[in-house]
Amino acid sequence: MDMQSFEKSIKKLVDLYGKPTDEKMDIYYDLLKRQNPKILERACELVMFHRISRFFPQPAEILEMTSQAYKEREEEEKPPEVGTCMNCHSVGIILKEYVYRGREYTMALACHCQEGKKYAKSFAINKVKLNEEQKEKKTWLPKPITEEKQEPESTPDPY
Asked: Please, where are the H alpha helices in the chain?
């Protein structure tokens, strides 16, 4: 890091506590120049929040806060944890493909895990139970009704 970006990183400290002498600034620069400028800037903010003194902070105090700033950045950049559900990876939604009248469609269904139950509850999705034949075909559509309609029996005329 060059001196210009260093001064930009500690600008808030300088504004709050006043600028140290040039000799002290050179010492601070030599001790803190290996730090990432954004991390150093965040560390200076943390020093201002956690320190109760009217004097310019020591380099050790700033370095102590850089470790906390790195931890904060790691937490922000940490990828979300993969869930325990093997079907939906704890997203709550399973995508199923089906064929209807010769066209392929994709439907989002609620998983049976905890997240899926939340999804189903929040959107009031009715659960559809698949019978074994539908599971083998991997379709979710119900079987068409093929029963013939029976005509109602004629009743005798009461008049």
From this structure: 3-9, 11-17, 22-32, 37-50, 59-77, 114-123, 132-137
| pLDDT averaged per 10 residues in sequence order, the chain, 159 residues | 86 89 92 90 89 87 90 76 72 84 84 80 52 55 55 62
Element spanning 93, H or E: strand 93-100
C-alpha distances out from residue 75 to 3, 41, 57, 67, 72, Å: 29, 17, 26, 13, 5
- Which pLDDT belongs to residue 128? 47
The rounded distance, in Å, linking the Cα atoms of 71 and 2 is 24
**What is this structure's pTM?**
0.48
Greatest CA separation found in the chain? 120
CA atoms of 20 and 28, how far apart (whole Å):
10
User: Residue 78 corresponds to which tokens in the numbers above?
Assistant: 């940490």
Instruction: Give me the sign of the Cα torsion angle 35, 40, 42, 48.
Output: positive
Domain boundaries, the chain: 3-77, 93-137
